[in-house]
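assembly run, all chains below
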Amino acid sequence: MFAGVDIGSASTKAVLMRDSRILSYYILGSGSDFRKSSQEALSEALNRIGATVGDIDRIITTGYGRYITEVGSEAVTEISCGARGVSFLYPEARTIVDIGGQDTKAIRINDKGQVLNFAMNDKCAAGTGRFLERIAVSLGLDLDKMAALSLKSPTITAISSTCTVFAETEVVSRISGGESLESIVRGLHNALAGRIYGLVLRVGVKETVLVCGGGALNAGLVRELRDFIGDVTLPLDVDPRLLPAIGAALIAKERHVS
Amino acid sequence: MAEKKQRRERPAFNAEIAASIGKHYKDLQTNKPMAYALMAPDPLIEIAYAAGIQPAFPENYACICAARHASGGYCESAEAYDYSPDICSYCRNHFGYIYAPGEKPPMGGIGEPDLFLLPTVACTHYFKWWDALHEIFGKPLIFLNTPRAMEKEMPSYYLDYAMKEVEQAIADIEKVTGTKITNEKLSEAVRLSDEVTDYWQKILELNKTVPAPMNLSDLSNILFILIVLVGTQEGVDLIKKCYEETKQRVAEGKGILSKEEEKHRILWIDIPLWYRLGMLGYLENHGCVIPISDYTQYIWGTTRMDASKPVEGLARKALGGELNTSVDDQIDKMLKDIEEFHVDGVIALSNRSCRILSVGIPDATRIIREKFGIPTLVLDGDHTDERIFSEAEVMNRIDSFLEMLG
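ok done. output:
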């Protein structure tokens, strides 16, 4: 049995696989203690199938916390793991858009799942999931409610600021100006999608485009992304946050065999 | 990311250059007249030495401040005086130093100038930076204007114009300092400068060898000679030692990494991250060496000069160099050198402070990928202002790039 543990800035994901089949997985918030969250995610994934750490042949860790963990000593970046996981489940994918909490990544891969090029948002959080999370908090809404409001709106209020903090101020100003909350929220999703699209253009849009990461769970964002990119594919049979952890488990198996 | 530091044998010339840098900054406190000059392929440096003027380089000082992790504070001070964060961090470092040098500025500081030497070669912000300093210190400013050369073949009137500008600058310096710059003195400075260029070009050629005898940090150290000591015997003596040692290393097959260790040869585009040169050690530990960068390869020491025609030679120097050519020309040079230096990966710094070197990066990396199929990585950052460097994010990109290299 092989394990992939993806310790991201927002959530930690553990996946257990055997014979290229997912046996179990667990997702929890990363919090501030990556050691604890990675151990907990792996333990919970093991508990679900009544297994123990001793049943695991090899573990690969990935994500920002890949070095800050005691569950495994082999680390691979989430770029390589994400590419491996996507190409395993969606071999037709050539462009990956992974929208995470701290990072958004656009990755071009070939038919073997090898990374040809990648681009990430710079250190500003405005192109990531954190953008919507921050504003959701200031509006007193949760992300699901935000997405639902966005989908209701036929209009888009332009949010011009490229800074998350300034965008919050701009939202308040738009509300004070009497614009509808639905239109403002759609404007926020549209602004984020626009930034993500800019990132995707840096690696080039090549079909099939697969959108994953926590952002893929946001229907409001996905609609706006489709307006920019065109047709995009979403992981339907697996949680879109799991792909790098799946890739990590697959790499663990490949390394073990070789 | 977390790993043990490996100690490798560096070229011994680095210690001699460090000593020369120390001497230079001591000289700035005593040698008069002293002029602020710029890190361009600037003919005013040879003229200054011919006139007995001690040049000082605020940009070089910014590199040193960055390496000593003092730049963030100086940039912050400059911003407190309303200098925008969008201004080049070399400038902000300098203004911060001027307004709030602190009790112990790196190298004891850079001293107060007696005049300013201003070329229009290279960066577009030079003019306003020196204009502001001219206001602050109230000292004379000598200005040498040369045209931008967008095509490989320059019209002949460009050279005529640049030569007139060099002649005018000589006359202006003579007037300001009261020193006659004889043809003999000028020819001697040009001869010495050309000798430095000759050694430099041979050194760059040697770095095509596998394993590379020098890494980017070694090349950047030698640049001190190309920038600060051109036109001096000290510069010639020092670069000659660099050349001889490098030649010896090549003859002995001695590289920064051994032939077995050297797995990848990287082209670096743009200015190094002066506060984070340790990143090169991390790359070395993963079998990567950087034997070439556009910054070290194409800006200084690109133009040979005929000492018997010093004015023409200096004019040609001002018109040459990557900062005075088109993006197409820059990319063509890189494409040629990728083959000659056996490069199999590219790291580019999209440098917030240096748009002139960064603007061509998207095209350069795309064309390189298409032509050679090698991985390219673009980092976002700033060469001097450490405050916008994000260790975790940059190293994550570097790790991904290393995985792409295989």
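The domain at 1-90+239-258 of chain A is CATH 3.30.420.40 (Nucleotidyltransferase; domain 5).

The interface with chain B takes residues 64, 67, 76-80, 103, 114-120, 122-123, 202 of chain A (CB under 8 Å).

not gonna interpret more than that til we talk
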